[in-house]
């Protein structure tokens, strides 16, 4: 069967004995194919495989002869039977698409997978993994493609889980929901709302898959709340061997602690069970302040608002404070479309493009837009997920590290001083500062410590890259100095040596990965830097 951009085939291995091999033609095993002894390797995609007419009968094949009498069945050799099964499997195979170009949302990273799959069932995923094993190919699973790094990239097989996106179970008594790994949080939010439920915390973007947000440790803010994987109470995992493992704190507990932030290297996450809360509204209040005031009274801000974060405008003292707290008030907004879009998007992008020719303008752009858009108080009330989420309008490069919360002031002031002392180094607004509670997830940036996430950004106006290397390296150096751990979905320059120092449980994770994927089927270039 042809698929757009190419032809692909996937066949189950059929075990045969030596006598059968002597009489049944098969395609020789290619070197390094990984095909086990005693298995027929399927023909390559370009091989024409004739299907004998006598394998089929009925209205779809009116010219075929009738089936042989029962007495004649004894004369049919095992070779014929196995060949028939082989051709039936050809007709029921799962197909991949060639010629697909994968790019992340920001168009900063991409790859050209040999085959791109969109399975609709667990059995289809198993067949894809079988094919990968036969051909000695690696496999990467993708969701919404929002990760601003190459963590999802591969030149081998790519599985896009968007067609496995169902809500499987809603337990109102336990306030839990079980979903397929490919469901976008944007769809899950709507479904939960129908049942009077919600997730207690969400990241800025919900056009992301459930399995993906836990795979990279998506977070928001709120010192009483952990990263999104802390809301996971169970999951099922399809391993490289084709086994399905049910995992929770009481079943396969070690695998569960690894798989709640899995990096896509343990297998294919089939289902996720989230702990929910009753649906709620949030009251968001945004108001201006200064960096000195916020850092000097950081503890007060953390206590004052359940979901507190702030935005610092580099090359200035300007800060926007954002409080978000549960409320019983009805939805309302004081936002203005003209200022939000016409000015906050179109004018800003144009000025940022101009600044690529005159970098010193960035300082004035940051100050001008703070005065224009962020110097007054703004309030919004809406259902929780509509407040947590906001639109990422610009293509961008980002870094986001988590440091111990007690190091927030020192680290941010050092970054401010570095920018002041190097006039040629410019930074776009904002530096977004968020907070998260400690947890016990092995590869969580918040493992065993309350953390401050400090996110820096450089926009790509009209898709144009801007110089950022000095800013990036300066920021990374400061983060490492204060014990930082990078966000797994975002770009960084760390290697295994760094992670061994950052994560006390790193050896435990590696041990689980080695057991579940001993041949490295789920690795790619990004993950090789992590584990080798």
Please provide a written account of the structure.
The chain starts with a strand and ends with a helix. The chain has three domains: 2-65 and 77-91, no CATH class; 167-279 and 500-531, 2-Layer Sandwich (Uridine Diphospho-n-acetylenolpyruvylglucosamine Reductase, domain 3), CATH 3.30.465.10; 281-493, FAD-linked oxidases, C-terminal domain (Vanillyl-alcohol Oxidase, Chain A, domain 3). The chain has 16 helices and 23 strands. Helix 9 (337-355) packs antiparallel against helix 10 (361-373) and helix 12 packs antiparallel against helix 13 (469-481). The strands form six sheets. Strands 18-19-15-17-16-21-22-20-23 form a nine-stranded antiparallel sheet. The chain has a five-stranded antiparallel sheet with strand order 8-9-13-11-12. Residues 1-65 and 70-92 have low confidence and may be disordered. By secondary structure, the protein is an alpha+beta fold. 30% of the residues lie in helices and 21% in strands.
